[in-house]
Amino acid sequence: MSASLTVFLIALPLSLGIALATGAPLQAGLVAAAVGGMVAGRLGGTPLLVSGPATGLTVVTAELIQRYGWRTTCAITVLAGCCQLGLAALRTARSALMVSPAIVHGMLAGVGVTIALAQLHIVLGGTPQSSAVANVRGLPEQLANLQPAALGVSALTLLVLLGWPRLPGRVGLALRKVPAALAAVATATAFAALTGLRLPRVDLPSWRSHALPELPEGPVLGIAAAVLTVTLVGSVESLLSAVATDKLVASQRRTGNRPPRADLDRELRGQGAANVLSGLLGGLPIAGGAVRSVANVKSGAVSRRSVMLHGLWILLAAALLVPVLDLIPLAALAALVMALGVQMVNATHLRTVSRHREISVYVTTIAAVVLGGVLEGVAVGIAVAVALALHRLARTRITVEVQDGVHRVWARGQLTFLAVPRLSRVLNQIPPGGRVVVELDGSFMDHAAYETLQDWQHAHLVHGGSLEVTGRSTARMAGAGHSGDRTHTAHQPHLAHSAHSVHRADQRSHRGTHRGGHQCCRPWTPWMNHCDHRPAAEPMIPGAAAAPDAMDALESAEAVESVAPPPAPRRRGAGQLASGISAFQRDTAPHVREELARLAREGQRPSQLFLTCADSRLVTSMITASGPGDLFTVRNVGNLVPLPGAESTDDSVAAAIEYAVDVLKVDSITVCGHSGCGAMQALLNSAPGTPMTPLRRWLRHGLPSLERMASRHHAWVRIAGRLPADAVEQLCLTNVVQQLEHLRAHESVARRLAEGTLELHGMYFHVGEAQAYLLSEGEDFFDCRVFDSVGHQAAEHVGQHA
User: Biological process (GO) annotations (predicted)?
Assistant: First the structure.
């Protein structure tokens, strides 16, 4: 009951203020508030979400009333509600949230700026103009003709509105139970009444003359665009408010005191039904509101009953309190709505979009909404967001440096036709016959870039030069020269023997070099071709020098493929292990011996504890580009962290955590999951009553992850830009988040976190994509924990992930 009264006291002046801002009959705001509370509250999918006149549609509704009249605007509201019901039936609610947050927040901020500019004229004692630009142009004239009475009432309203939450002492604590909006409007109304000020006031005509909808009149395309705008803006505002309300409930309530999580499709269905009825009764468009919903949650509401009761109180007030409502000065309502518009330009949203480098989308959307309107602004925002995404996709940095006589060309980003001029310019700076290493650090190379690099490669090798191509984009280059080419180099076997020989010699002498240091002989090259770990007695290729390592043997075999014998069968077990050790001693040990000797003398000083799965496909040093002494690694089935004191706990994991945190003093701990995890599959497929085995006893530490995924009271986990592929991937992602929670329960970790000397990171490695993802900080406004993909610039931003 108390929560419903609190929301009613906030919604009453707010509804009148929004109706005033749109130019609609003031009763329309009360109708929308009552219908939103009782219909959307009963049928919606978010129990504590309070719906009413849509703040985000204020500008749109005002434009529709000016263009088509009030009764046609009511019909547009009915049609928009029908569209929402259709979208709900198609279960598209969550898809509607895939719009860039920068566009959504920019749209709402633009609406807020437009509202504030319009209401400023009423605050100053005048009348708002038809557009934001006209309101700005009319401000000088309005300032020259101030109405002191209106300005005084508005200033008093703003003073009470801003100061009410800061009242000190016990008296202030008691007074703060009254909503600030109600206190501000009531104070201004009492002041105007007691001083006898002559001001325009609320004028609620008889309900008998209340206007109802009529058949839309106007151009069909214009009506259709209006319906589309009201549908999209109202739906997005409602769904964002639903997610925000759900998130607020999860952060402030214990599990046993929480209502069910939001059902967005049901919420959209409830909003559609409410808009249909509101339009039929002559009310404003309806959407879920954050201000009223926050008040509802903080007032202790536990069910949708408080939302429905607030709608009932609005209805009773509209019927019984008309004489009291008629005393409210319009300047007080205008000041209240102006403050609400200013608050829609949210500083937190601004910081968020700046951190994600989307400030241009945000600012452009605001400007377009203010200058052109909501639908035009959203369209411009989408266009800028797409252009920014294409720019980031096409942006490539190409540099060249000379180190020890070797020209090193680095291409950072995707190689597309847009980068061809820069690539050609850099490659043409390299003198013929020189030694060149090209590093392609990108995941995509289009045909134009491929041909440019391939043509230059041919010319360079023909003139006696040597070339080595490395990086993620070399697979296509490697496969282009010959059908059997499986190395990382982009040479062509049919070229002149002299160029090929120089190229091979250069590989032997320089393959360990990378930015002036060692690559440790590229340890993954022999790993890619286990079948080429052959005995020393392997037959020699006629005309070829003795190959000192597996790569040379492979190249020589490919150069005369028709002569070489078929490759030996891949060796398994001890033979393969011995062959790999032999390759390490021959190729890698000479380069790492000095570094290992230093570590043996000084001891290990790893920077982080890396806790991951025992899966053989997860090679920690490869996916983190780390070497000896960098990571203190703990591996187990399912990358699980048993809770301290848990039944059948495994002290080996806890001991490793304690040793890493208290003895080695690591700076961070990373929990890394991966796609296709067998442990997570086993958890999903486990059946009750199955006999306990060591593996099943161990997997019991993963049950909290399974429960978290099934719970409606925890934030959902996803990968940036897409939904989880299946339940296994969803559990793999959720498990990382859950194990981070288990880490915080360990005493040593909790202590270091409290001191601010330790960071926790979540990581997910998609094996099939060879793509790593880092868990972003906090939750996004979709109420999700998000794993962001990691590119070559991730090191600059890794400090943001925790």
Answer: transmembrane transport
